[in-house]
Amino acid sequence: MDADGNLETKAGSARAHEPGTTHNIWEEFKAANDQRLDEIERRLSADVLLEEKVERLNRALDTQKQALDEMALSARRPQLDGVRTDRAGMEHKAAWDAYMRKGDSSTVSRIELKSAHGQSGPDGGYLVPSETEAMIDKLMAKISPVRAIASVRQISAASFKKPFATTGAAAGWVGEVQARTETATPALSVIEFPAMELYAMPAATQSLLDDTYVNVEQWLADEVQTEFAEQEGQAFISGDGVNRPRGLTTYPFVANASWSWGKVGYIATGNAGDFAASNPSDSLIDLIYAVRQSYRMNGRWLMNRTTQAKIRKLRDGDGTYLWQPSSIAGEPATLMGFPVAEAEDMPDIAANSYAVLFGDFQRGYLVVDRAGVRVLRDPYSAKPYVLFYTTKRVGGGIQNFEAIKAMKFAAS
């Protein structure tokens, strides 16, 4: 029942979660923020109640976006039924189910030995069926922000080595019958991306495992994907490369005019800990065009929610808002026409912080997954619960230093 005493219908309740609601909130936010900016221009300050209203609407936009993303994730949740029906796959799945539910490792051990998996056995755990591994990877790609926008490569070795040219091959123009001089050979170097061990240890009661209606594969995937994604998300942003991937913000940063390979170029806002007082959007434009056109075509922004809330209030010289909401579930908001990826592990705006990244992350950052997710069943350490020590090997780092640029909140 609403405030006027009328019964609220299910359809009316559902409309509160429709994508169009985002635009209603956005229009209300723009009107309130326009009023706030007008008051600042006229009186050098805004009414406290108006400031609170703008922040309340700002939070509502974040909440609505989160709801849309959750709807999209639920709609795209992968199904296990019918994924693999060949005899070997069904045998592995049945053996693994017996191991998970009862601890019977005899059959799954024989299957892995037959498949020549060198690390099979109770000490290293057992490989999950390929369907379960694929489901974990798909779920992680949906909730791990950097994995969702980066290039992902599966490997079978302990690390991945990628060669790159430090100097290009020489070239030139010649006439049809002119002599061709010998060109210089390009110099090559190698970047290595080792795969580090990432683990999670969900617990279950034996009664849950005994319930035949419980899909243990779905249960395991749901339990570990959030933990894996959170650990990955932090490492892909701020990891130091020691027993974890190397993060985007841990490489050397230099002014873009002095950029060289192995470093990330930055554009300064002109104001320590904030955007410039006048024409604040100019630094965003400079950052976009600091990226070469071939990378800018697939460019996107990377920042956390707090930074996005700050940028959401900015307008261009014509009074048009730079940030625009998405009206489609699962699609990101845009900033100056480029999609915005939100990563909570990105730093907040502060003096000399690199709170905004822009570029082609698919060509700029590489995530390496070593094939195979392993599970070790432990019914002894936390009785009456059964622990499932689940591991996968993941690495990551910048593979192309031209493709990504940063914004430094500093005077220079």
Question: What does this entry look like structurally?
Answer:
32% of the residues are buried. The chain is flat, with a radius of gyration of 26 Å. It has 412 residues and is α+β, with helices and mostly antiparallel strands. Mean pLDDT is 83; it is low at 1-20, 77-85 and 116-122. The longest helix is centred in the N-terminal third of the chain and has 28 residues, at 48-75. Strand 11 (334-335) and strand 12 form a beta hairpin. It contains 13 helices and 16 strands.
How far apart the termini lie comes to 57 Å
Number of helices: 13
Shape, principal axes of CA atoms: flat
β-strand number? 16
Assembly type? single chain
The percentage of residues in β strands lies in 15-25%
Outline the fold blueprint.
Blueprint: H1 10-15, H2 20-43, H3 48-75, H4 87-102, H5 106-114, E1 126-127, H6 130-143, H7 145-149, E2 151-155, E3 159-167, E4 187-194, E5 196-200, E6 203-205, H8 206-210, H9 216-238, E7 253-255, E8 264-268, H10 282-290, H11 293-296, E9 300-303, H12 305-311, E10 323-324, E11 334-335, E12 338-342, E13 356-359, H13 361-364, E14 365-378, E15 385-398, E16 404-408
Parallel strand pairs: 2-14, 7-8, 8-16, 9-12
Antiparallel strand pairs: 1-14, 3-4, 5-15, 6-15, 9-13, 10-11, 11-12, 13-16, 14-15
